[in-house]
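User: My collaborator sent over this chain with a note saying "see what the structure looks like." That's all I know about it. Can you take a look?
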Amino acid sequence: MFLKLRSNKGFTILELLIVIAVIAILVGIALPRFKGMKDEGNYAKAKGELRTLQTAVESYYLHNSSAYPTNIDGNLTGATPQIIATSPIDAFGTTIYKYFKSTNGNYYIIFSVGPGGTATITGISDAGVLAGSAGDDIYVSNGTVQSGG
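Assistant: Without extra context I'll predict from the sequence alone. Here is the result:
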């Protein structure tokens, strides 16, 4: 009376291949999205750390006879009073954030190399104008370009 459709238990090769193909398609769709999410997280981290470094540079300026630091690693970590304990590592690189001061000492720019991993900013002029191009660099400055990237 009852029909027995399958007598053995388990999956056929065709069923297993279909399941593997579906999983491979889902993984193929998900991986690029995870990379984008990682870049977005690094971008937000870099922006936050750059704002912190900008505050530290301005604090150094107030405590050191209205002079900006010559570098952010030694000057900010070795200042009295100590401004920051250690310089943060660039979210997109393996070194600390880049820092340039204009030759007249009135302007500075602090930046991350961005997702491309290569710095396109080459400095800041005595008029406070960005030298080079922003490209995908993320930066903060007290010059005519306040923040961006």
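A starting point for your reply to your collaborator: Residues 42-148 form a domain with the Glycoprotein, Type 4 Pilin fold (CATH 3.30.700).
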